[in-house]
Amino acid sequence: MTSSLPERAGRRCHSLLNPFHSAHYFSPDLGRELAAVGVEDPRAAYFAVRAAALGGVGAGAVTATFFNFRHELVAAHVPAVWETASPSVVLAARERVADATLRRLLGEELIASSEVAEAAELALRATEACSRTARPLYAAHADLPLPERPHLALWHATTLLREHRGDGHLAVLLDAGLDPVEALASHSATGKGMSPKWAVGTRGWTMDEWDAATARLRARGLLDAEDELTEAGVAFRREIETATDRLDLAPYEHLGAAGVERLTELMTGLVTTMLGAGAFPAGMIGKR
Prior knowledge:
The protein is an all-alpha fold. It has one domain. The protein contains 16 helices and no strands. Helix 1 crosses helix 11. The longest helix has 28 residues, at 249-276. The chain is globular, with a radius of gyration of 19 Å. Pfam families: HTH_67 (PF21863).
C-alpha cells in the first residue's frame, strides 16, 4: 500500500502517542488505585489494567496478546486477579489512574488547555480508520466508552492507537521468526528497547534464557560477539518496523499529512512535559 504521508510520519507520531498512553503503567497512582480495590501485587496490577478490556480472561489469552511475558508469570496472577477485582472495577480504577497521572505530570493548566482538546480531536479522528480484524487488544479497547473530559479522551485515543499498532507488530514478529525473548533482545540491541535488566525483571524471563536468545540471534547473523546488531541485524529490525508501519498506516492516512503533522507537534509538547516531570524510570531504555 502506497502512502501520501511523508516517510515514517505515522511512526514518528506513534512514538509520542505511545508514551502518553503508557506513562500510567509506571505511575505511583497505579499502585494506589489498584491496592484500593484489593490488587496489591504490582505485576497483578499491570496484567489486570491492560487485560481488563478483554473481560475475565485466563492466562492463555493474556500471554497471547501481551506476547513477551513468560506464561508462568502471567498464570501466577491471571485469572486469580479477577476474583479480587472484576474487570469493570479494574477499568474504573484504571481511568482514575490515568486522570491522576496526567494531572500530576502535565499540571491543571495544561490539562485544561486548547492544545489537549485539539490533540484529542485529532487522535480520535485517526482512530476512525483503525480495524478490529485480528487485533484483539485494540478491538477490546475500542468497545470501551469514550471518556468525556478531553485529557482522558486523548488518553483513550492514544490507547487505541497504541494497541492497534501493537497487535500488528506481533504479527510482524511472528512472521520474522522471533520468539518473545528474541524479540526483546533484538529490540534492546537497537538501543530503543528496554534494557536487558528491565526486560528480564519485568517479563519473567531468566538471564540464562536471555543469553540463550542472544546466542540464537548470533547464530542467525543478527548479533555480533558483543551482542550488538550486525549490518544484517540492523536491516532486519528496520524491516520489522517498516512492516509494522504498513500494517498501521490506515489511521494516519485517514488523518492526513497536515493532521499527522499537527498531532505530532502537539504530542511533542505534551510528552516533553511528561518526561521532564519524571514519567518513566531512569535506566529503563538502552542496551545495557
